[in-house]
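Why predict the complex rather than its parts? Because the way molecules touch one another can change local conformation, and only a joint prediction can capture that. The input here totals 652 residues.
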Amino acid sequence: MADLITSEFVVLDLEAPDRHQATRQLAETLSKGGRVTNLDGFLADVTAREAQMPTGIEGGIGIPHARSAHVTEPTLAFGRTSGVDYGASDGPARLIFLIAAPDGAGGEHMNILAQLARKLINQQFKESLLNARDNQAVVDIVNKEVLGR
Amino acid sequence: MKLVAVTSCPTGIAHTYMAAEALEQAAKAAGHDITVETQGSAGAVRLTPQQIADADAVIFAADVEVRDRERFAGKPLVAAGVKRAIQAGPAMVAEAEEAASRAPATVGGGPVPPTASVDVGPPGGGGAKAPHFGIKLRGWLMTGVSYMIPFVAAGGILIALGFLIGGAEVATKVNGGSFSGVTYQKITDPTQIWGVAGLAGVLFFIGGTAFGMLVPILSGFIAYAMADRPGLVPGIVGGLIANVIGAGFIGGLVSGLLAGTVALWMTKWRVPRAVAGVMPVVVIPLLSTTVVGLLMLLVLGKPIAGITKGLNNFLGGLSGSNAVILGVIVGLMMCFDMGGPVNKAAYTFGLAGLATGNQTVMAAVMAAGMVPPIALALATTVRKKLFTKPEIVAGEAGWLLGASFISEGAIPFAAADPIRVIPSIMAGGAVTGALSMAFGAKSPAPHGGIWVIALIGKPLLWLLAIIAGVLVGAVCVVIAKGIGRPAEADVLTPAEAVPASAR
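Output of the joint prediction:
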């Protein structure tokens, strides 16, 4: 199974005027890395999900996500910003997790994403990501906390 | 305190699990046990019936419909969207505590001693807080009934449509027998029905086929409620055997409870690891079905056959006795088991009367058989609070089914609460049977209900007899439903048990 996250899917100094741009920049890394086959198609799926209910979560995180036919492997792209509004009631998100799931995925793949989702509300997990020094540090934190390795 | 929760969201890959995590942490921090069913993309591990039964309260954190929410009927409930659980898990857990403490009687069940709501369980835990057996039993029966009701509605309405289109003789054309002096051969090859009896015959046949599933579905899903999936096979097969031996829906209740008990017991067996894998697929279905089938066929079959024979002899001996008393007896019998052995015996007695030229017994039998569904339809209309949602739906179909002399329309009510419902509708049937005989109403038709009114002798008095029985039956049901279960109606509508927070 492909890695859930690699350093090429991490953007530590993400600068974007709004959540659409922020999501697009993260999605572009997935597209370059071969995890997303059709960038615009994937973004349309994410936007459709976002339209149902904003994905900002109190505590400074945004979790744009979708199950999409344009995704090859379950992948996490991570961005850290000075603040982008994802619709949470307590203000902008500093940590952005773009979760890309293939349309028909099940079982093992989905268990990993479920495990990731559970970690997203863990204060210590969020703090360590806020303080991560480089891309590889982010990858290591995610691998350790989500996959236990 | 024990809690169960269900989380679900539109995509099923993020919020579902975040909400689950938040609730688990909040419950742990507050010192409670919680089990969360995440209805997301990773495949939900279903809460077991036991976990739900043991839970003091239920939390829904869901933005999409909770699947199979009827499993939680009667439980104190707190409901909100997933985001609320993520942001305010501790608050939701606190609300669940409050909901549980506000409804101690509904959790412990009926008249429990006051100590039951205080945690004084043994060190092993949980024993003292298990729901009252009566509440559990009612939950099992309601599950079976709720799965059966669509079959009653679909099958009953198809049969009624068959009568409407083809006249009441359609049943005789398909099943054979005589109708108003004309004798028909039974159609043994179903593909010939269209040619012989047309659309009406086909609708009647399809409806009858759906009716053939009433008892198996009732039995199967009672067992399913008790033992989860392992209960299904022995339950359904037991129900099919109940059909074959003519045991009616009461036989289905017996086979369902039996199958559930046997399957549940077998799932608790400790087996070597190598065998464990084939237990649910092969061993439990095989053994439980064998046991249930043997018991149904060998232990229950003979007495049922004996009862039928005894009743036939008993009724045969009554021929020529006081007409009103005869009417009371066939009325009581028609409304006892709606298609079971007692009902069949009375109906057969009516048919035998027709064969010898006595049409008054048939009129009484038909009138009394129309009473149960109509009386219950009336009761659900005037006293909605006394019935569950599925029962109210069944009540709506009851008007048509009763008018068409499809007594089976009352089975959902009788199966869910036999002790209160059966005597009530029997009282109604007795009144109708007695009046029909006293008036001397006559029916040359063996079925058809209101649709053969043109053939009935003294039709207006016959209708009066039915109306009188319906009123008596409905009043008795309403009174009986009020006995021994204070505020039961509230217990069975989880959505109203606790004011749900905005979703």
